[in-house]
Design brief:
Protein name: Halocyanin
Number of strands: 11
Strand content: 25-35%
Number of domains: 1
CATH topology: Immunoglobulin-like
Radius of gyration: 17 Å
Order of helices and strands: HEEEEEEEEEEHEHH
CATH superfamily: Cupredoxins -  blue copper proteins
Keywords: Copper, Electron transport, Membrane, Metal-binding, Transport
Number of helices: 4
Shape: globular
Organism: Haloferax volcanii (strain ATCC 29605 / DSM 3757 / JCM 8879 / NBRC 14742 / NCIMB 2012 / VKM B-1768 / DS2) (Halobacterium volcanii)
Cofactor: Cu(2+)
Helix content: 10-25%
CATH architecture: Sandwich
Pfam family, one: Copper-bind
Length: 228
């Protein structure tokens, strides 16, 4: 059994626990939601002295994800989330979205609302430097999360792991994002010596239960993917 099938089975179990399906639409002065296409995932196109990047929102083979899952931008750059398949949102971890604050304090809490038509898009221009964590409202508990670093990492997102809700996913490290510029899905973090699992794994697995954690731990350790 490959890791994708294994994790899909776990996601199905988590869904039984009750994935949230509520979506709110928050007003945002520098964001827009509209129907239309975009550039390739992670690709940038210059315009007006800034760059526009595209992140795809995808449902595929029982998985729900943003691609790229980690992206580095500069102040003034714009990110456009484009719906490739399924029904998704791009919602900031922000108090204005009834979520833990994980974006810079002086940044607005963007929320696309639920996008349902293929090709629909939502854009947000990043002004404040720092780390921005976000999620898909219907699929956060199934691991659909992402991170954008604007300029230098910083802010509440750097102070701890994402909330330990079932299936909250692995968030790419900000340093890795800055170094790579763009990290495609699936994100597999590097680990420490002796095949140890990274702290992001334990944060994500916190709500899954001891038995599931043990199975996933054994499976991933055997795979060697966290070994140096």
């Amino acid at each position: 059994m490959n890791r994708r099938t294994f994790m899909k089975n776990i996601a199905g179990g988590v869904a039984v626990l009750g994935a949230s399906t509520g979506v709110t639409r928050a007003s945002n002065e520098n964001s827009t939601a509209e129907s239309g296409g975009g550039t390739d995932a992670g690709g940038g196109s210059g315009g007006g002295g800034s760059t526009t990047y595209t992140i795809q929102m995808v449902t595929e083979d029982g998985e729900y994800y943003f691609d790229p899952v980690g992206l580095h931008v500069d102040p003034g750059d714009t990110v456009e989330w484009v719906l490739e398949s399924g029904d998704h949102s791009a919602t900031a971890y922000a108090e204005s979205n009834q979520a833990e604050q994980r974006i810079p304090a002086d940044a607005s809490g963007f929320d696309s609302g639920l996008l349902e038509e293929t090709g629909a898009s939502f854009s947000y221009t990043f002004e404040a430097e720092g780390t921005y964590d976000y999620f898909c409202s219907p699929h956060k508990q199934l691991g659909m999360v992402g991170r954008v670093v604007c300029g230098d990492p910083g802010g509440p997102a750097e102070e701890g792991a994402i909330p330990n809700e079932p299936g909250s996913g692995l968030m790419p490290g900000s340093g890795d994002i800055v170094e790579a510029g763009s990290l495609s899905y699936p994100y597999v973090p590097s680990g420490g010596s002796s095949g140890s699992l990274p702290w992001q794994f334990w944060a994500a697995a916190g709500g899954l239960g001891t038995a599931v954690v043990a199975m996933v731990s054994k499976y991933d350790r055997a795979s060697g993917r966290y070994s140096e």
